[in-house]
User: Fold these one by one.
Assistant:
Number 1:
Amino acid sequence: MNVFELEGVTKQYGRRAALRGFDLSLAPGESLGLLGPNGAGKTTAIRLLLGFSKPTSGTVRLRGLSPSDPTSRVGLGYLPERVQLPARMTIRSLLFHHAALIGLTGAAADLEVDAALEQTGLVERANERIGSLSKGLMQRAGFAQAFLGSPDLILFDEPTSGLDPIGVRDARDWIASARERGCSVMVSSHQLSEVERTCDKVAIVNEGQVIASGGIRSILNDGESLEDAFIRLVRQERK
Amino acid sequence: MRPSSSAIFLELASEALWDATRRRIVPMIAFVSLISLLAVDSCTSCGSGNITANGQVVPVSEIAGWTGMLVIASLSMWMMVLAGILASDHLTEPLSDGSANLVLSRPVPRGAFAGARLAGALAIAMATAVVVLGVSAALLHLRSGLPLLPAALAGLACLAGSVVVGSLAMTLSLMTTRVATAMLVMVFVGAVTFINSLGLTGVELGAVGTAIQVLTPPLSTAVVVALAPWTDPVVPDVDPIIMMLKLCAWMIASVGILLVTFNRFEIRQ
């Protein structure tokens, strides 16, 4: 069974179609890069998977369930494009709050929170208020909450925005380590290099449709980089 | 692993309560409540003596019940408005700043999230109501000898009314702005109170007034009916059991409307 599936999904916002006959799936253990220009429909697809909105038509399944069923989100990590965290909380209290929401309490919560802080390099800053953090540290805190409880599926929406080059490198390593332990990963981004380094499959989205998908090598022509292929496919579609 | 719904609700509700206590409006509520209590202290300070009305001398003790009813009913309406104002952005704020997204990406039922945000806002409103109404009732008891039980029942009616107004305000806030919601709360509570009061005096309400009286929650009527023993022998011609059942039905329905609306709500941030 696929981890998630979107089949023939259309999403209308008034007269504007954010998605049109959108098809996408992810098998267990796969890492998929969702590439597309701004406004292509990448975030809309993620929002449908999380049950934040409902498709106008078509089917969305998360672990075989409707995304409106909270059980479908068990073992799911999510990092939104613009991480917004409660300013008054400390990083540690935020993580304990999320630990409680996934059923971790007591010693298990302590272990998971410490592991997430350690992984994202936030141990020293754990007791700082989120409101006082820089954008980059806020993004790290966002990563920490996404990794909490060792999820088996993580959805990253523009995960490296706001990170400095060291942070970007760290983020790639964190995503790679999640993949190594068998976690299914979807990275939505318009940073082609980021997807090339972290994913083994890509889906290119343009104007609400998946215009190409498959292994990275399978969509490249001879001597072509992912960037070249992306521009070729998007331009071809626009004609 | 998925925690139980009650564990999720408690976690979210304590978080929502923390959030509510840190809002800028809370010191203002404390200040206005203090002013209200000072006004009540002033209003109830004349426990004995006479007043002259239309040339007739009336002992103050004879109108203490009416004074007490006016004080408690007015404060109850203000407490319901407060519940509505607090609820008018307590759900929409985390939705609009995006901080709700991470919570709702967890195995959290939407109903638990909305219910917890409502509980957080109502906890502040209810705590204020308990203090303000409690102190007022105590002053009326000590200075005018008014029994406490009617005041306690009126307090319960006020709390139930606060749940109704808070839930409806929170639902409305999903469809309109905070300012519009707050204005509509004031208009709604004001209109219902006016019509309820007219209904209690036996005035002919007309078609619109009757419709409001029948179709809206008995916010003011329930409070006044609870306080009826204070104005004995003048008792409003309303069955208190029916009145309380109607208010309870409204309480359940308004929370249900909020949960259903939020379940269907598109989170766009």
Number 2:
Amino acid sequence: MILYLGRRLLGVLGVLLAIAAVTFTIFYVLPSDPAAAACGKACSDERLEAIRAHMGLDAPLWRQFADFVTGIFTGRTMGTGQYALRCDFPCLGYSYENSENVWDLLVDRLPVSASLAVGAAVLWLALGLTAGVTAALRKDTLTDRVLMVGAVAAASLPVYFTAVLLIYGLIRLTGLLPYPQYVSLTSDPLGWASNLILPWVALAVLYAAMYARQSRSSMIESMAEPYIRTARAKGLPRRTVVVKHGLRAGMTPVLTLFGMDLGGLLAGAVITESLFGLPGVGRLFYGALTSGDQPVILGVTLLAATFIVVANLAVDLLYAVVDPRVRY
Amino acid sequence: MNKRTRTLAIALVSTLGLGLGLAGCSGGSPAKGGPERKNPAAANTGAVLGGTPQKGGTLTVLSNQDFTHLDPARNWVMPDMDFGTRLLYRTLVTYKAAPGAGGSELVPDLAEDLGTPSNGAKTWTFRLKEGLKYEDGTPVTSQDVKHNVERSFSPDLPGGPDYAARYLAGADGYQGPAQGKHLASVKTPDARTIVFELRKPFAEFPFAATLPTFAPVPAAQDKGPQYDNRPFSSGPYKIESYARDKRMVLVRNPHWNPATDTVRKAYPDRIVVTMGLKGNQIDDRLISSAGTDASSVAWAALRPESTPKVLTKPEVRARLLAESSSCTEMVQMHTGRAPFDDPKVRKAVQYALDREAVITANGGPALNDPATAAMPGSLFEGGKQPDTLGIPLSGDVEKAKQLLKEAGKPDGFATSITVSTNDKGIAEAVQQSLGRVGIKVTIETVDPSAFYDTIGDTRNRTDLVYTGWCPDYPSGSTFLPFVFDGRYIKEKGNSGNHSLFRDDATMKRMDEIAAMSDGAAANKAWQELDGQILAKAPVAPASVERKPLLIGTNIAGAFGHTSYGGQIDYATVGLKDPSKGAN
């Protein structure tokens, strides 16, 4: 187990390094020049060169990349003389746009994205699994059909449509809810939930539909396994058969899906956060993309990659818990 | 100031719909080129809305974005300059707080007067008023103004106005005070006197002295790039908190002395800027103006799709400011490349362009006016552009065809135009209008973030580009040289002169005007030069956009300031009833 974990962690590092290298190279070959963007209009060549040197953009690609990677672990000093900025471990650099430490920006925005992702995940798991398992147990009945048609319909609704519909219906038309404004969980739990309910629903509708379909097919498959028949023949109560034997085995593919989805969402739901004006990692990323703020884009990309690979690893480890047949 | 500094996003579908809708509303007497455009939002132009504010309360600013830079050495975006210099830091000279043309009048701010020129306007001396203090009660000194001027040279602090770099003597190669080096051409003989020695005469130095570069930053408070997050106040408010891209709270600076300040009224007790809101939310909240939204003003321009909801309701329309942005948008032609190296072809484009269609595509007459000259109206007598071109607004197809025939292109030709994605509707209007004379235009849209890099690459760019320029202050010297001086052209990273216009007579005349010490004569000369340049047709002026801003029902003292691109003057805005402004 420990050997397996060590091997996987090394793999995680390799993946992250590769992603950083690719992102770095993309920026390097792009025609846009962050120094020119920072310099502003009617910028003299001399000043542009000075700014480029200050930003470290005059160094060759390999050098910039090596500085970035070593900087993550050892920290870096940027700028000159009185204006030098010390960026400590884990140093992801400073935003070109507002000179903020990228790591601090991520730490500041993460609670918003995490609140959105975890709340929506609870909602979609509850809705999706209930619908999926119910449909599987009542396979080919009217309930099954209604649930699955509903799931197909919900899955076809893009989040920007659902979000706009919710904003229009529940905020603008009826005034039932306020325009979402993020308040932290610790300062006002009720405000936190009431402001996030719409974004949760917007996200959960889409995911719940996908989970309902996935869990239905997994459940149908696992409920047809011989050990279910055995369990039934042993006279186990239906609840035990379904939950302990059927659901547990049927959850493996759902868990895989969940790991990827939650990992991706933790690093920001770009559209949902932008539509609801939530200052999370997704909106940070969107803003950085539109302004070409490379350090922030790189930081968010690495964060997202970390969440996804770590979530994958966690899911693989959880297989062993969920499915007794799996051993490492 | 180029379009990089503006963030007015235009949605194509709704703007087209809106434009068509408004065409039906326009009335008035017929004029050359079709019916006169009656701007339904222009009623408030030049007026102060809401009467005189009462002191106190909380003013809320609803914004879709964060400030670009509030560090005075880096602040060069019109709305941010307005916010910074009207609320947080004072400059040597500033603009009068007055609507309409009165807003271009200079008044002393930190300085006792508008500066004393000597040595043929190559030396400028300013003396600071007595009793100027920072938020901690320490006195503002001339050394602090010098320190900020020096900071503006630092590569660690890019983005700010470059007037100091362009005019100060001995500034070549200077890279700011961080390494302990200082500029000898800025002298501070005592704590209240500052002397600028320039490399060439500059009669308009007092205008440049309104820019945030000429605000004080005490060396002890200078935190380099981090100063952007917490500029030290010499104005009526100081920053209580600033969470970037989220929220800023300003509270009164108790050490600001109103007796030293003839401009800022500082009516509200607190100013809260809520950032990162969606544009449609801001529009909706201000249209309904409920609760604390009544005490709010918009930071972002009203979205074109929200315009019908405003213009159709007299009560809401009365709360819409729509001052001119003073930025002229133009179809700029590559004068160094065939067929646009032929002035006749370029003139044909001027005649073929349907400015009515461009305006319709960009939100209709409430959001922009047709351009009839290159420089915006604020640079002409009476604040209005003359009709230099004398071409009907919808174009003159016959004349354009005639010109193409004379140029040996009777069947037209194929070319392409680059526009920012936001301006795709405009590009289609240009495409259709030039198509009428056989010029087949292919549209290339570029993401706003890459737009200036793309059109700045002079070798690989398209023949036509659609972009504009906004003057930094009301003088032709901040417009014509930036847009038409061939010596500013760069092969990569070119900005301003996108027609790549290099005309010896024009450049010679620009130098002559720049050397004039009589400001009025210089202004008149710039205005004449504007017409002479347009006669050579490097560009086809298309529109001058307006800045439509909604205010809540409890807002008073609000007007769009002509010297800040039509942004609300934060020096005078406040609340009718402060008890309603709690937030």
Number 3:
Amino acid sequence: MTKPILSIADMSIVFSSPDEADIEAVRQVELTLTPGKTLALVGESGCGKSVTARAVLRLLDKNALIQRGSITFEPKGEAPVDIAELKQDSLPLRAIRGNQISMIFQEPMSSLSPVHTIGDQIDEMMIIHEGLKPKQARERTVALLDQVGIPGARDRANAYPFELSGGLRQRAMIAMALACKPQVLIADEPTTALDVTTQAQILDLLRQLQADFGMAMLFITHDLGVVAEIADEVAVMYLGDVVEQGSVFDVFAAPKHPYTQALMSSIPKMARKADRVRLSPIKGTVPAPKDRPEGCAFTSRCPHAFEPCPTIRPARTDLGNGHHARCHLLTRVPVEEPA
Amino acid sequence: MSTLLSVENLSKHYTLSGGLFGAERRLDALTDINLTVEAGETLAIVGESGCGKTTLGRCIIQAQPASAGKVVYRPKAGGEVELSALNKRQIKPWRQDIRMIFQDPMSSLNPNMRVFDIVAEPLRIHKICKGRELEDRVIGTLAKVGIPAEAVGRYPHAFSGGQRQRIGIARALVLDPKLVIADEAVSALDVSIQAQVLNLLEDLKSEFGLTYIFISHDLGVVNYIADRVVVMYLGHVVENAPTEMLFERPRHPYTELLLEALPIADPLRRKGRKAEVRGEIPYLGNRPQGCPFHTRCRYAQDVCRAEKPALRRVNGTAQEAACLFAEELELKGAYEDGPVKVLHEA
């Protein structure tokens, strides 16, 4: 197996606010990224998936603190760095951000500068990180824009974001993220704002680029269809916990955590009318983080909850082949019937 | 089944100002739309952004005047009303029968009104009832959608996204409508909440004998909920067929493209697409000649660039498509039996 390039170990992130108790938005998360592979982080709104991803680049707001754990980044041929230990906005961190680890966001319109041409924005990355001359940088930018499938790359480099369609903007954003040949790419819902046909093109493109550049990818989404389409591994989050993780084939074939199972039965299957089954939604709604049960976060909505669930937090159980889940059902000792 | 509503040769265009010296330009949002809605069915309208599906919904409900064509409503009692010919005052009584649910409940519920008043407002406007009766009816409707009576004094911000959507549904249903137009009603919701709302919509449909026009871009949801599907592209209806026929064997290449692009939540059925999905939707103001889809169509012939195909029945079935080659093309559907081969094995 290839050596992981980024490992998040035992990471917890706490948000503090002046008039409320602290909220632990991410609890003891363990994730590893391997070169050339894609890990999908999936969950509903507010589960902590974006916070986890942003923590890797230390892009969290001031009131958020990585309270424990480490984010070990081990670039090829370099000494490992713990990103969690680096000072916010210090030089070593800025040398990584956008250069060795870069990110694409959901809404390209709000994450690209509206007053600079896309060419200038991409050039800037290379001028800052690699010290290229503007002319050299522009040559590479044009090549990149061409590689991400923007027709007429040389002219389009002079376009402002508003002059491009949503799909082209997202492509420009991907070109920008790839400008310095990153070893890790974080994609936060990169296709959510796009139409299905454009989404299919962007997923294809990301797959193709991953094959070309060999980068590791952390792909955040709420869409299980997209996960099945792009991921090698998947981690399912619920209220700050990674409740289940493993190879995408294992998790989809035999989900072990009740939340994963419930998520899968919430999406309509592509079936003929005769085979149609009524959806079985998860009852209730996600509780606010401050009302999270002390034990397993899913207790209040779980159809299988039993005695230890509300009070004891389930441990991360190894199910073999890198498949892990946090659920008491997996460690429950079968009670023997009195004879 | 009887026809509840029909849309006949409906067109809608907008005029764009060309700036200070430029000429005015015309943007055709809907071109010659014909469709019928049968009583009791769920008709889905699908397509990508900018295809005109929302504009069509708004033209049906007369929130926007159409540029040409008719919208005819046929209430149960018999007779027919041409909604598009009525003025503001004449149309008011019919607004009780056709109601709308919007995509984003946060922007469609007034943040300054209590939930009770939001749902009571249509009853007050139409002077249906007041006092105790009104109270009972509002609370009863909210209970039907799962909002408890204790919560009716709160403001929209105090509810979660799913609950807000339920309030929007209650507001649509409180007038006892016949036809409900749901415009991307579940798109903004998380999957687990989306499933709850879909089930709710189904239950309410059978309880109140509703007819739905379900506007959506999510074909998975459409396959689940719809009886019939209308596919739109650049302001045209390109296909109109019973759901199962359409998903089994689409007759328009655009439908095939949409089905192909749809991600399926099963890694064993992962599709290795390899640039099958081509090009982008052209700008509406710059619509191609001939078939509107020919610029992205992998089966396009010379004749497609010249001749604009009309929507017509395919082989005399209930399936209608606007493609010159609808009969010949062997297009791929979305139902697959068993796993396809694994294309991206590690």
Number 4:
Amino acid sequence: MEPFFRKLLAMDRRWIFLCLGVAVIFPTFFKLNLPGLKASPNVQAVYDLVENMPEGSKVLVSFDFDPASKPELAPQATAVLRHLFRKKHKVVAMGLWVTGVTMAKDIVSRTAAEANAKYGEDYVYLGWKPGNFAVIENMAADIHNCFPKDNDGKETASLPMMKGIRKLSEFDLVVSLAAGSPGIDTWIAYGSDKYHFKMTGGTTAVNVASMAQYVQAGQMTGLIGAMRGAAEYEMLINQKGDAAAGMDAISLGHYLIVALVVLGNVAYFVTRGSKGGA
Amino acid sequence: MIRAVAIVLLTAAAASAQGLEGFEVFDRPGDAGGTVIAAWKGVPGGDAGVEYVVSVAPAAGGEWAEVARFASTLHRKVEAPAVFGYAESNERENYCPVDGLLPAKGAPGLAKGHSLETRVRVEAFRGGVRVALSEGSASARPNWWAPQKANVLVFALLFGAGTFWLIARARRNPDVFVRRIPGLDAMEEAIGRATEMGRPIVYLNGLNGMDSISTIASVSILGQVSRRVASYDSQVLVPCYDPVVLSVSQEVLREGYTAAGRPDKFREHDAWFITQEQFSYVAAVDGLMLRERPAACFYMGYYYAESLLLAETGGSTGAIQIAGTDSVTQLPFFIATCDYTLIGEELYAASAYLSREPLQLGSLRSQDFGKIVIVAVLVLGGLVAMTGAVWFKHLFTVAS
Amino acid sequence: MEIVGAWIAVGLTLFMFSFLYKDNPFYKVGENLYVGITIGYFVIQLWYKTWIDKVWDVLTGQAHDRFVILIPVLIGALLLTRFVPKIAWMSRWAFAFVIGYGAGLAIPATLTTSVVIQAQATAKPLVTMPDRSPGAAKATENAKAAYDKAKEGAAKEDEKIRAARYRYEQSRSVSEYTFLTAYRDFTTIVIFVGVFCVLFYFFFSIEHRGPVRAFSRVGILFLMIYFGASYGNTVMGRLSLLYGRVLDLKDYSRQMYGFATPVILVLMIAVLAALHVKNKGKDEGHAA
């Protein structure tokens, strides 16, 4: 066995890339429908929050990510927006990441069109402003001053929906979909902890562990984690999308990686004894 | 006749209605202005099935305008602990925040956060009949003092004062105890090994600039490493990602060699700039490792996705690898590939330990002091919470 | 236009993926374009969203206090003095302003969010006493009724029943000491022990001997579990990103996009193979 494991440890890593590529590509052609998807308490909490708010509640959705995290966060954004529009909430969308402006606009207008939501009355897209946490501080004082114009250059004050929204604290819910900082932590530190509005959000897999502390401490309600979280949300709103379709690929990739980790460890322990003598 | 008079009197009494219990109107404390609050304890005869209607008018005279209408079960004082505290009675008593009235257009304006003297009227209706009515007035103004955030101020002052005091103490007596960090012993070993093998050491400062604490710590450790390297007559190679970090590294190397009494051995080109392109930098450093086959690789400072690429290549050359970073997302990769890893704060501690600089030693002590406070809060808080008491929790609540 | 977009997207994705084979000219082109485009995009956004919206429009507007905006503009402009060595010292004023403003905002916010509130949330009772109030009992009753109703309404176990059962179990865990309450207490204890021991691991002012050593050993165990979870999550994240790109590549393989993916892939492989052959010849030449 030892020579095999020795070979395995010395294997060119490009073979692993290839195997992983195949594992991810294969399910995009052949549906496997692997079992095991059910809503986790954190995703359920976000869903319940949106579901139980009275119709017409004011919700701010902040797109704090860029195309680099699109596969994880765009399905979350789509699912949450679909739910918000379905419940006829008033949605104000914006972003703290400059490279996400156009992508966010696409997602918002696509989901709004699906629900026949009218621009200016049911939803608004304010776009991006520089300043990270300073933007949040500014919005807490006066949104119209922070965003004098929306993303398309229309006067914010002239939009019917924005007439009733001047300050951050007037929102019934703020949702930050974040790939890093500025993101959920910024919104909590400079927004919800200071101005006391309800906060929830979603993040990428890399950040789930570090954002979980805010859920545990009650600083935010629920958290959608990565593509899996998006798939769970899609399941809850009964409208499957990109994330649910991707679960097979992700699961297959995970099986491969777990197998490689186990194999690697076995190989390490088998070959360790004779290493010194070599 | 008497009966008729009695009926008229009773109706009049109902129309004039009684006042709400404990009614008051005041500026909302601890805010940036703009809001006045009407608060009351209840309605004579209990508030079951009561609906409140809140109206405002300028004190100088004018029409009443209705601003809120709600059932008595809503707008309880318990929702605003910043204003009313945590008394048990808050669950039964009501309040209503109202925007202070502003001058009409064209009239002289007021300073930001200030409002006109605003009259607030609260009427209580039971089954459509008005059973109580109270009025009061107040003007909104911004406040300098936010009592609900006093606990944060106390913490800031406590930590701030502690830090300054501990730095001053370390200045007077730099002989501050800092525990030995295992990774540091390994560094010494690695330098010795490099000398024995006649191979260089590769030292990386991470990808952040000099404004990052981890880079400062890394450069500080480099200073100590260069002293040992100089005294052992070995060689340290420092490929840099940032031009400013490069100049600092060169200076630090020069000082290290001088301090070890070997200024002649210092070679300026042992630290050089590569590129500010993340993966191009990785490619260049990987190439360097494969060519030079260093005896030891030190990865200190802040890293991003390149961490694994660097440490894997270093590992494949058989070098002893020691990493130190506060980049939480990259730590797992370093732990998996390096012989020793300084985790998070250990990097700063290592820097303080090696440099013995009072500023770093004092800050390290103050961080320990902060940790002791937090441990005490956790233990005390857990014990107090077990008794069912909530006062301790409220000490750490930043109320809304 | 859409076809051009598809070809660019596919081309750049494959250029970046080619790094998995090895560093090559395609990757370099992709990387430099990425850096350049990001900076260009940022500059344009900054121009319209800051200079035009917040400065130009204000100055050319009608507000009586419009010239106040010149104060922050001046402070910002001081940063540019760094390019002129003689007056570079003036940029320090701007930095002083930025750092002072940043620290003033950040210190209380971080202290509130990461210390005060987190400490409060961790200092929980380690064993929860059931809430015996009539309100809690009523909430459980209502949740049970909703769950029973959901069960009647549907023939088989569906998402609605599951959600109703979830809510019922949540309510019951408050009014009674159930398995879920015990589970929650267990997690509270784990978090408490974890925070306590990890803090001990990071004590530098005392020697790690005796009980402190024991606590810090447990602390490092917690840290390793956290790093393991973080590692796993990172793998999941990267796989999601790969899947996202694969999905786009598959989408752009269609005829309506001019078979962008297969065409570019084949062309790239051909060029890389040619380069490989060419460089191999060179290496051999050197060796000889």
